[in-house]
UniProtKB/TrEMBL annotation:
Residues 208-349 form the Glycosyl transferase family domain. GO terms for molecular function: glycosyltransferase activity. This is GDP-mannose-dependent alpha-(1-6)-phosphatidylinositol monomannoside mannosyltransferase. It comes from Cognatishimia activa. Residues 123-187 form the Glycosyltransferase subfamily 4-like N-terminal domain. Its EC number is 2.4.1.57. The lineage of its organism: Bacteria, Pseudomonadati, Pseudomonadota, Alphaproteobacteria, Rhodobacterales. Pfam families: Glyco_transf_4, Glycos_transf_1. PANTHER family: GLYCOSYLTRANSFERASE WBBK-RELATED (PTHR46401:SF2).
Amino acid sequence: MLDAQDIPTTEAMAPTASIAINARFLTRPMSGVDRVAIELTHAFQRQMTDSSSALRYLLPSKPDVLTAPIRPLGGLSKLFRSRPGTGHRWEQLGLPKMLDRDEWLLSLCNTGPLGVRRQAVMVHDAQVFTQPESYSWRFRTLYRHLLPRLARRADVLFTVSDFARRELESFGVFPTGKAVVVHNGCDHMDRISADPNALSRFGLSQNGFFIAIGSQAPHKNLDLLVRLAAQTKLDVPIAVIGDVNTSVFKTVSGRSDHNVRLLGRVDDSAMKALLENARALLFPSKTEGFGLPPLEAMRCGCPVIATTGGAVPEVCGQAPLYAEPDSLHDWVNAIWLLDENKTIAGEMRARGYAQADKFTWDAAAEKILKTLESHDAQHQSRA
C-alpha cells in the first residue's frame, strides 16, 4: 500500500479552492467506471498544476484493503487513508469525516456519501433500472435506493452522455435539468505501448481475427457472438477480452468449434496490440451509458461494427458500421460488407481517427472543474 510520501508531487499550490477525490476505485480491480475515474484523475492533476487549487485523494484503510491492487497515479498531490470499514460502509461513514471545511468531494464512480452536500457525483448509466438481470438483487436494491437520494442531495451531478442523462431523469434518479453531461476521453490509448508478443501468445495473426470486449453482464450481449460464429462461416476467429459468462460460452474452451476464443482479462499493452491488429471490433451491447471500447478501438485504427443500442450512436457518430443488437442478420451483413468491400476498412479507420479525436480526458476534466467553479461563483453571488 502506498503512503502519501510515495506519491510524486507537483509544484505546491495555494489551497484556495480544494477538491477531494473519493478514491475507493483505487482499492479494487479496474472496471470501465474505474478506468474513467483513473483517467480523470490524471487529467485533473495536469490541469491543476498551475492553478490555485489543491487536490487530495481519500480512500479506506483496513487490513483486507491494504492488500488490494493500488495503482499509483503519477503526480498525485496527496493520498490519504482512513478507518472505519471498507466499501460502501466506509464511503458513508468514514469518508465524510476526512473532508476539510469548504472542500469539494468528487465521487466519480456512481456512489458517494449521503451526508455530504458539497459533492459532485458522476452516475454513468441507469442500467440497474433498465437491465436488472445484469445485476444481483443486493446490488440493484442498494443502487435503486441510494442513487435518487444521492442525486437530490449532491450539489452537482454529472453523467457521461445525453442518452444516460435522459434515462436517469426518466427513472427519477436525476432531477430534470440538474445534470451536466461530460463525455469520456479515449486518448489514454496514446500513452500505452502495444505488446509485440501479444498476437503470438494468443495464437492470432494480423487482420486474422475479430475482437470483442465485454463482461458477463447479460446486456453486453456476448451470446450474439456465439450465435454469429455458430451460424455463419467466419474465416477467422472472434477473440473475446474480459471476464465472460462461462454459461454463455459453455461450449467454448480456448479454440472451439464455434470459432470463439476466450482470452480473459488482458493488460492494456496486450489490448492495444490486439486492437491494432484486429480486422474489426464487434460491440453488440444492448445498451451502454457511454461505450468506451469502440472509441478505444478507433484511437488504435481498428474498424468498428457497433450496436445501435444506448449511447453508442451518440458517441461513435458516423465512424462505425451499425447493427441492431438483436439482429443476427444485421451483424452478418456488416461483416460481409467489411470483408467484400476492399476500401471500406480504410475509410472506417479514417472516420474512426477523426471521431476519437473529439474525446479527450483533458476536455472532460476541464468541463468538470469549470462546472464546480461556476457553481461556487453563482453561490457567492447570491450570498
